[in-house]
């Protein structure tokens, strides 16, 4: 019922004008399934005799096969208004080309289309709009076929069935599976029916859409012929798989054998008896068994050939086993009919140890040679492994050391029993004995192994004289590959070795293995550890005599060292350099060959690195900054990575060694130079210095004034220099003022007489012999002098007429030359007494000096206000005098000449050049 | 000369023909032997399967009797030896193998009806979960399978001899019984069935040497 008139199609869609076109989108928009459901209902709902179609399509098919040609016919019925020429076909809104049409007759038009794609489509037969009737009844001139596309079912393959054991019966449920072939579409799915026929009896079946199914019978049909096949079917056809006709036992899979046990018999050390129970009664199914076993040290199963196994046995004796070895065994079973049934799962393990037997091979004897206490002997330690076929626990070794030269004296040829305490065994080897063997001696050692049953054949090892040891192997190479260490060597150049011993030694491990004479490329069979350094040695053995060894170090696998080198400073750091030294990483923590060391150091943000080769253990860092703290660490690298050591910090020196000494010496030398230069300067300029710093003050006691004065016969000493006048500048301490006053008072009568009669006190500055005393006084008053600049300095000068007139006043004899004599005495000249007529306001120096002694008795009686005024006045004058100081100094450097000492009419002040002159 | 040559060619032709005929004869004999061996193997396999199934049914019948007694309460062994009418004879009758095989088949068919009656009776007497009902079902199905296998074997051995119908028409079943009678009846049926299977097993073992070997002798050509 897939051919439909367009009348109800457009009723479904509600589109009267273009029913076929409106139906199509509905189908294409996924509503196809709904529409397919609605169409039959609508067909049934049509009123009888109404809405008759004038077109009819054929065939009425359920599905079309993809990839084939499909031919449909469209027939005009009950009208002659149109002919086959007016018809056309549409598929998926596309008009089928005319060349695919076949006009059967005037009322029938065939079309052949090729079915492609898996999409559901409609094939419509339509009529051209040849008349108004056709236009008005367009829905009656339309008919279609729904094309549900699919593939023909393909033959299921590989049908297999299985019936499991359930309790003491075979389960009546048989499960089968098969492989689906070919493709299927959503519209044309393929279903499968599993068929099972018990020959001469019933047939069972079950349907599924998958590729497996189970059938449950009344009972499992033991010994009955079963025929099993699978039928694949869809709308396009049906096909059967190959029929599987077998006895029911063909499909049986039983449980594994039960109660599997090993029985060991002491009298048969190489056999074990295996017993088990049937998993199911023999009446149900006959069974054959398969046995596999392995020793406890092996993980590879050994299978007992099926040909060695009889049917329906429940015990088997395993032979040719190793004595004193634990064996594990498993058994499984299946239908005893050849090719029938499935193997059961393996049974649980049965484990047993075979009885002990006499050792069937020699023990593996070897030696460890080391240097003796002195240079002429060796220390040889003999070690031994159990025989490969020890056939039991070795309880003791018996050893005999034969010294050829000894000839059995001292009992050296007697067998010595060495009990084996397994707790003392190291790595499977037992240390038998250690001997001191002189280099010029050779020995032969024989060892047997004994277990609880018997003794092995003796193993022999001959140690030659040291000088007679034959040469080692050549070009020994060791490399890791595939988790093992491989060795390659060339045989020794001299005598042919009969076998080789490969020995490998680590920190806590020592082992060896023997290789035959033809071995060149061997792998170490021992359990080597990763990241451990092994010293691999190859010893050639010459008919039992050991030869010299060749050794190489190797790692099975390398990794980064477990720790980095510990770095420290060698000595103290310098200012710009520091010498580092580090310790080698212990061999047990190295985990590989060191490829290089990387020295890293930083003083802040920037890290500097230096890479040094592995054989270096110290390095000097240069170009460091002074007085800077550095962190330094060293990384040791292997091919497996690198590890960083701990940081070490140090601070560089602020000064380089010797720098301080250099500075100190330099400064000292400089200071010494300056000092020497100063001293030299002082020495050579001592006069000038003396003049500047220690001016010579005349000793008043030695003053010659006294001699000048007629009234003072006591001072009759003639001045040493005529026409010279000196100025004595005397720093008078205030405290000394009193004494000075007292001295002045003492000499007062003398001076009073002298000055009153003949002399005039001139002030400071009066140095010219030609100047009159008055002028000198006047000059002194107006300009002041250097002596006035210091409050404590009082200069005394006296002008003595060169012609020695007594009582002659200078004013009356202005042209007369006078001789100035300067007194170096600290005694002030009592001008006030000499010139009582000179008023104070005129600026008499004497009066001023007199007033500057506040502690004098005369001051004590004064009014304090007066004293203050005087001090103020004195201060102002001092300030005024300061302006003249440079001129006075300049003037002093120029010695007075005659022209200069000539009197000047303008009473200008003449500085007192030359200071004073010794009188 | 020509005649001699012709004679030579004829002789050669005859030799070739003789050789070819000999070869064909050997091939035919070998083919016959192979076919006979194949048939013999099929006979042996079929008989072997039948015998194995008989043995299995016998084993199950022994277990069934044990279970039956266990689920009937206190029941004396002698009650199972009480003769009950309408229970088939366990003995195999006939002289020829075909007759004896047919006898096995008919007896099995007869017991299937009795098994059905016993099952119905025990369904009323036992709980639905009783193992006895399960074993009865298995025994009945096994008997049906054995009958089908014997039939197949018979058809294979004697394809031109149809199996005879049971004597007396349909199997006669006992009239309604009380519970005790049902228990006794069931036990007798089971024991008799076991005897039948025992006899059948013995018979089939003997048939193996008789039937299949004889057919081999029949089919073996004699030169």
From TrEMBL, chain B:
InterPro entries: 4_helix_cytokine-like_core, Ciliary_neurotrophic_fac_CNTF, Leukemia_IF/oncostatin. Its main location: cytoplasm. Pfam families: LIF_OSM (PF01291). Residues 1-28 form the signal peptide. It is found in: Cytoplasm; Secreted. It comes from the Eukaryota. One of its GO terms (molecular function) is cytokine activity. GO terms for cellular component: cytoplasm; extracellular space. Keywords: Cytokine, Cytoplasm, Developmental protein, Differentiation, Growth factor, Neurogenesis, Secreted, Signal. One of its GO terms (biological process) is cell differentiation. Belongs to the CNTF family. CNTF is a survival factor for various neuronal cell types. Seems to prevent the degeneration of motor axons after axotomy. This is Ciliary neurotrophic factor.
């Amino acid at each position: 019922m897939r051919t439909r008139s367009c009348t109800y199609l457009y009723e479904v869609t509600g589109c009267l004008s273009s029913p076929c076109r409106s139906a199509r989108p509905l189908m294409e928009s996924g509503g196809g399934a709904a529409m397919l459901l609605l169409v039959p209902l609508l067909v049934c709902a049509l009123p009888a005799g109404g809405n008759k179609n004038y077109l009819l399509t054929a065939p009425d098919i359920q599905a079309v096969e993809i990839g084939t040609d499909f031919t449909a016919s469209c027939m005009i019925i009950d009208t002659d208004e149109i002919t086959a020429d007016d018809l056309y076909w549409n598929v998926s809104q596309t008009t089928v080309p005319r060349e695919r049409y076949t006009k059967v007759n005037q009322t029938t038009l065939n079309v052949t289309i090729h079915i492609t794609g898996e999409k559901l489509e409609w094939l419509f037969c339509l009529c051209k709009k040849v008349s108004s009737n056709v236009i008005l009844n367009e829905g009656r001139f339309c008919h279609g076929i729904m094309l549900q596309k699919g593939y023909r079912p393909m033959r299921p393959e590989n049908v297999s069935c299985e019936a499991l054991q359930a309790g003491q019966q075979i389960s009546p449920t048989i499960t089968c599976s098969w492989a689906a072939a070919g493709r299927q579409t959503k519209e044309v799915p393929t279903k499968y029916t599993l068929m099972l026929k018990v020959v001469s009896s019933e047939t069972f079946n079950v349907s599924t859409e998958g590729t497996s199914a189970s059938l449950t019978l009344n009972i499992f049909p033991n010994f009955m012929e079963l025929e099993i096949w699978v039928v694949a079917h869809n709308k396009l056809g049906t096909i059967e798989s190959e029929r599987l006709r077998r006895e029911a036992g063909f499909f049986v899979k039983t449980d594994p054998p039960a109660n599997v046990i090993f029985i060991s018999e002491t009298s048969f050390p190489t056999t074990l008896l295996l017993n088990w129970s049937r998993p199911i009664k023999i009446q149900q199914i006959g069974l054959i068994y398969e046995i596999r076993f392995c020793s406890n040290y092996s993980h590879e199963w050994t299978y007992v050939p099926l040909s060695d196994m009889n049917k329906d046995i429940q015990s088997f004796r395993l032979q040719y086993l190793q004595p004193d070895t634990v064996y594990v065994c498993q058994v499984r079973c299946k239908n005893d009919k050849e090719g029938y049934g499935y193997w059961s799962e393996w049974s649980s393990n049965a484990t047993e140890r075979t009885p002990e037997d006499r050792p069937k091979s020699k023990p593996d004897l070897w030696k460890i040679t080391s240097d003796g206490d002195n240079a002429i002997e060796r220390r040889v330690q003999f070690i031994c492994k159990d025989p490969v076929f020890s056939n039991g626990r070795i309880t003791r070794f018996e050893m005999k050391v034969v010294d050829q030269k000894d000839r059995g004296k001292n009992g050296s040829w007697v067998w010595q029993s060495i009990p084996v305490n397994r707790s003392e065994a190291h790595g499977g080897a037992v240390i038998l004995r250690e001997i001191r063997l002189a280099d010029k001696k050779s020995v032969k050692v024989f060892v047997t192994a004994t277990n609880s049953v018997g003794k092995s054949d003796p193993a022999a090892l001959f140690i030659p004289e040291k000088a007679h040891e034959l040469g080692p192997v050549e070009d020994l190479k060791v490399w890791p590959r595939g988790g093992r260490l491989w060795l390659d060597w060339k045989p020794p150049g001299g005598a042919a070795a009969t076998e080789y011993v490969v020995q490998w030694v680590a920190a806590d491990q020592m082992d060896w293995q023997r290789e035959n004479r033809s071995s060149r490329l061997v792998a170490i069979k021992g359990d080597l550890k990763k990241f451990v350094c092994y010293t691999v040695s190859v010893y050639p053995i010459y008919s039992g005599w050991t030869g010299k060894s060749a050794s190489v170090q190797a790692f099975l696998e390398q990794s980064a060292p477990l720790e980095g080198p510990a770095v420290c400073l060698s000595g103290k750091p310098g200012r710009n350099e520091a010498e580092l030294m580090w310790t080698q990483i212990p061999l047990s923590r190295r985990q590989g060959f060191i490829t290089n060391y990387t020295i890293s150091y930083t003083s802040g943000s920037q890290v500097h690195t230096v890479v040094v080769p592995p054989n270096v253990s110290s390095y000097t860092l240069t170009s460091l900054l002074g007085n800077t703290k550095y962190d330094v660490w060293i990384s040791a690298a292997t091919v497996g990575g690198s590890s960083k050591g701990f940081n070490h910090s140090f601070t560089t020196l602020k000064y380089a060694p010797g720098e301080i000494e250099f500075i100190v010496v330099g400064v000292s030398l400089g200071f010494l130079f300056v000092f020497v230069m100063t001293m030299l300067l002082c020495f050579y300029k001592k006069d000038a210095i003396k003049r500047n710093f220690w001016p010579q003050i005349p000793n008043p006691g030695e003053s010659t004034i006294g001699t000048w004065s007629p009234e003072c016969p006591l001072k009759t000493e003639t001045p040493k220099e005529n026409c010279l006048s000196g100025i004595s500048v005397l720093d008078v301490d205030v405290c000394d003022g009193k004494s000075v006053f007292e001295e002045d008072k003492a000499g007062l009568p003398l001076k009073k007489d002298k000055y009153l009669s003949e002399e005039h006190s001139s002030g400071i500055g009066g140095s010219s012999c030609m100047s009159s005393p008055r002028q000198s006084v006047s000059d002194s008053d107006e300009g002041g002098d250097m002596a006035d600049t210091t409050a404590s300095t009082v200069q005394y000068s006296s002008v003595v007429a060169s012609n020695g007139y007594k009582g002659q006043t200078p004013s009356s004899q202005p042209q007369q030359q006078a001789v100035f004599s300067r007194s170096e005495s600290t005694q002030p000249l009592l001008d006030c007494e000499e010139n009582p007529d000179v008023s104070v306001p005129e600026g008499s120096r004497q009066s001023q000096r007199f007033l500057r002694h506040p502690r004098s008795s005369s001051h004590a009686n004064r009014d304090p206000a007066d004293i203050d005024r005087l001090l103020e006045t004195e201060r102002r004058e001092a300030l005024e005098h300061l302006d003249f100081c440079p001129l006075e100094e300049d003037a002093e450097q120029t010695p007075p000449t005659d022209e200069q000492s000539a009197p000047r009419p303008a009473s200008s002040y003449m500085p007192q050049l030359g200071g004073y002159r010794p009188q | 000369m020509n005649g001699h040559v012709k004679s030579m060619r004829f002789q050669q032709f005859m030799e070739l023909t003789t050789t070819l005929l000999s070869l064909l004869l050997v091939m035919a004999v070998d083919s016959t032997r192979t076919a006979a061996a194949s048939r013999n193997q099929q006979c042996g396999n079929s008989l072997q399967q039948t015998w194995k199934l008989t043995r299995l049914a016998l084993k199950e019948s022994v277990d069934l009797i044990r279970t039956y007694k266990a689920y009937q309460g206190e029941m004396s062994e002698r009650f199972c030896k009480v003769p009950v009418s309408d229970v088939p004879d366990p003995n195999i009758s006939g002289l020829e193998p075909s007759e004896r095989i047919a006898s096995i088949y008919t007896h099995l068919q007869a017991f299937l009806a009795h098994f059905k009656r016993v099952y119905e009776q025990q369904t009323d007497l036992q709980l639905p979960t009783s193992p006895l009902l399960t074993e009865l079902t298995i025994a009945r199905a096994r008997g049906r399978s054995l009958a089908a296998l014997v039939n197949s074997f018979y058809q294979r051995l004697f394809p031109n001899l149809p199996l005879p119908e049971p004597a007396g028409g349909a199997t006669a079943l006992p009239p309604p019984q009380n519970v005790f009678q049902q228990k006794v009846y069931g036990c007798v049926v089971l024991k008799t069935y076991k005897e039948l299977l025992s006899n059948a097993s013995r018979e089939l073992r003997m048939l193996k040497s008789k039937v299949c070997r004889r057919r081999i002798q029949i089919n073996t050509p004699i030169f």
